[in-house]
Amino acid sequence: MRAVQITDLSGPATALTLSDDVPEPPHEHPMTPGSGIIVDVKAAGVSFPELLQTRGEYQMKPDLPFVPGSEVGGIVREVHGDDAHVRPGDRVAAFCMLGAWAQVAVAPTYFTFKIPDDWDYAQGAALVLNYHTAYFALIGRGRLAEGETVVVHGGAGGVGTASLQVAKAHGARTIAVVSSDAKEAVARRAGADEVVRSDGPWKDHIRELTDGGADVVIDPVGGERFTDSLRSLREFGRVIVVGFTGGSIPEVRVNRLLLNNTEVIGAGWGASVIGWPERTERIGRAIGGMIEAGEVKPIIGARFAMENAADALILLDERGATGKVVLDLS
Q1: Contact 43, 300 (CB under 8 A)
Q2: In this model, does residue 194 exceed pLDDT 90?
Q3: Long-range contacts of range 310-313, CB-CB < 8 Å, 24 or more positions apart?
Q4: Which CATH architecture has domain 3-127+298-328?
Q5: Looking at residue 254, what is its pLDDT?
Q6: Is 0.85 surpassed by the pTM of this model?
Q7: Residue 271: pLDDT band by 50, 70, 90 thresholds?
Q8: 8 Å CB contact between 94 and 37
Q9: What backbone phi and psi angles, to 5 degrees, belong to 193?
């Protein structure tokens, strides 16, 4: 089959090789011996982990060469095992962990979800990683309540747009932090009630917009913004740490938490759900309800052919992406 492989660890511009003779994956997924869903891939998600993998900087370090990519949108070809809730021919979103950047991928049953008939396959490839992360962070870890105000850093990105939609679906007021007019337009399309610019006094603007501070800040960026995120909270507010796309990992002066009765909450979705099917299924049902209600619909940004997968990663690396970046395989 045709697939993109990481063949060395030289970075996004040079680490990838497109091959026409990569073996198809086995019928069993390594996470679920004895079962697996074989998917004919129509679109694959491009995310920050793949960028890190081209440099050997991600916690998962498969032997070279390997097919990267964790998310697909496609059509079920085969079902193996007795616990499947999808059938051959179903249009699905699936989370594979590895192997998504290929014509055929295998996913665990509990990480495979039907998608609406009116969705693009790219939207299927944009569903699991970002929306499950957003739900786990905001609802599972952040205890978001109706009527609270949520600030979303990176509000035009994949996790950011998903977080805005999930927050709105739960009755929150949303404020996106973005860096450009183009990204503001994407954040507003995703449901941002207000938008502030990251290159200005965004902390002060948030405090003005909220009459004293936000209830929740969700931060996939990290870096130097983190301290001001704490300062932008009202009493009993929470900063939810999702990732560090800004590069540096911030440190917390815990006296700030004590004096202002605030919290810093880690939201490691992958570590919490891998190996715990019931958690993934529960989140999947919740997001399925939001899809049916029209509250969740992934926003697709740039699309690339398999031949141009390196360009997709470079776009992420240069912070130019909006919405979900995908590879088109159809």
Answers
A1: no
A2: yes
A3: 310/12, 310/13, 310/14, 310/15, 310/16, 312/46, 313/12, 313/16, 313/46, 313/50, 313/51, 313/54
A4: Alpha-Beta Complex (3.90)
A5: 80
A6: yes
A7: confident
A8: yes
A9: -75, -35
The class that CATH gives domain 130-271 is alpha beta
User: What is the structure's pLDDT at 328?
Assistant: 97
Percent of the chain scoring above 90 in pLDDT: 83
| Residue with the two structure tokens 């019928």 | 27
Across the range 151-170, mean pLDDT stands at 96
- Give the pair of three-digit tokens for residue 60: 């998962």
Sign of torsion, CA 123 217 136 168? negative
Residue 275 reports pLDDT greater than 80:
no
The answer to whether residue 101 scores a pLDDT higher than 70 is yes
Query: Which are the contacts of 239, defined by CB distance < 8 A and separation ≥ 6?
Result: 216, 217, 219, 226, 229, 230, 233, 262, 263, 264, 265
Give me the residue spans of the domains in the chain: 3-127+298-328, 130-271
Closest CA to 242 of 123, 131, 114, 328: 131
CA dist 121 and 41 (Å) reads 9
Contact 324, 300 (CB under 8 A): yes
Question: Residue type at 220?
Answer: P
